[in-house]
Amino acid sequence: MDNKKASLHTDIDTVLNNYDFDFSKAEINVLGNGHINNTYKLTTPEAEFVLQQINHDIFTKTVELSSNAQKINQHLLQQKNNGNYPLAVPQQLHTKAGETCIKIGNNYWRLMEFISNSYTLEEVESPEQAALVATAFAQFSCALADFPANDIAVIIEDFHDISFRMLQLKEAVTNDLQDRLADCQALVNFCFDQQSFINHVVDISKQLPLHVTHNDTKINNLLFTSGDKPCAVIDLDTCMPGLLMHDFGDMVRTCCSNLAEDDTSTDKMVLKLDIFAALIQSYQNAFGDKMTRLEKESLIVGAKLLPFIIGTRFLTDHLNGDNYFQVSRENHNLDRAISQVQLFSLVCEAEPELVKLAK
Ligand code: GN1
Ligand code: MG
Q1: Residue 1: what pLDDT?
Q2: Is residue 295 part of a domain?
Q3: Atom 1 in ligand 1: which residue has the minimum CA distance?
Q4: Distance from the alpha carbon of residue 1 to the mean position of ligand 2, in angstroms
Q5: How much is the mean pLDDT over the chain?
Q6: Ligand 1 proximal residues by C-beta, below 6 Å
Q7: Which of 30, 31, 35, 332 to mutate to test the pocket of ligand 1 (most atoms within 8 A of CB)?
């Protein structure tokens, strides 16, 4: 075992000693492929758990993050008990001292329930499955419709604010800390050329009502059980007041492309229109009259915005030296940025057809 692994195991042992459970026979495996936190699955003879080391550099309000999740879970459980929420609500476990988050050295950790026999998917395989995905995320938002938004802390300010993200890109371009600008100047120019789209987003955003949104509704933040049925929404780290178009847009971003987020064969990227149709129709149906006319119209704006905003964030991080998103190869963030901007272009091109499918 190398030093890094050994010290990770020591940290994990220390964390687990704070819980009232016998972890002596726990098997530890890396879980999922998040870009920020480190997540592990713990398997003991009696039960399975999710252990997460929260990235404190990014989630500086770490304690608030876990207390937000606790409040949201409590509300969802109440809704479930009243028959208003059909999905499972995986719980955070309390330490012996009654906390849902624990600091060991400089790191923050939390332990959660693992829903047995559940798994994540990286790709939607059929319109029927897409319909289930959109319905599950809509059920999550509907169940939170009467949740007092002021009760939860804003974990990352201006998270989906495109003007703020463009300022961050501008700063990264000006600083060009890693001398990487020359290789991606065309992509940077393309992003700055989208000002009229950005103006439209800013304008419509001001007119839309705030909801408690999930803000990271990518397909792999949904748990599935046998038969590929959604059983729970996970990763509540970025649940904050936001707009429905953001949540819808991230579903489109991760369900409607035939390629993974970081796939470099972007010339082969196609937009799956049948999946889009299933997503938008099911999302709108699940909300019924709880969604305003403008919110319905805004869903297509969100479908363009999310690939664009995440693309600019990957590009910014590439220019800054990959400090935010974890990377596993050279130019990984640049590859992600190219792919997401290509997806944005495909959604823009297809807009007239998407509008028809939304009806
Ligand atoms: C990050 O770490 P993960 O995979 O849950 C990011 C999201 C991006 C996503 C791109 C807090 O989420 O906003 O959409 O990567 N989360 C944060 O895959 O920045
Ligand atoms: Mg996340």
Answers
A1: 57
A2: yes
A3: 35
A4: 30
A5: 95
A6: 34-36, 216, 218, 235, 238, 261, 310
A7: 35
Mean pLDDT of 50-58: 96
* Structural contact between residues 280 and 135, judged by C-beta atoms closer than 8 angstroms: no
To the question of pTM greater than 0.90 for the whole model, the response is yes
3-state secondary structure of 179: coil
Distance from the alpha carbon of residue 81 to the mean position of ligand 1, in angstroms: 31
Q: Are residues 80 and 148 in the same domain?
A: no
Does residue 120 belong to any structural domain of this protein?
Answer: no
* CA gap 279, 313 in Å, rounded: 25
What's the gap in Å between 202 CA and the centre of ligand 1?
22
Q: Among 77, 219, 52, 12, which Cα is nearest to 134's?
A: 219
Average pLDDT, integer, range 337-348: 98
Cα atoms in the 13 Å half-sphere on the side-chain side of 118: 26
Q: For residue 79, is it within any domain?
A: yes
Please name which ligand lies nearest the alpha carbon of 33. Answer: 1
Does residue 168 sit in the same domain as residue 271?
A: yes
CATH number at residue 311: 3.90.1200.10
Whole-angstrom distance, CA of residue 118 vs CA of residue 183: 42
- Give the other-Cβ count within 10 Å of 163's Cβ: 13
Q: Which of 113, 137, 169 is the last residue of a domain?
A: 113
Q: Whose CA is nearest to atom 18 of ligand 1?
A: 35
Q: Is the pLDDT of residue 9 over 90?
A: no
Residues 160 and 96 in one domain: no
Give the span between the Cα atoms of 298 and 280, in whole angstroms.
11
For residue 2, the model assigns a pLDDT of 72
Q: Are residues 243 and 320 in the same domain?
A: yes
Q: Quote the pLDDT of residue 33.
A: 85
According to the model, what pLDDT value does residue 129 have?
94
Q: Is residue 118 part of a domain?
A: no
CA distance 32 to 83: 30
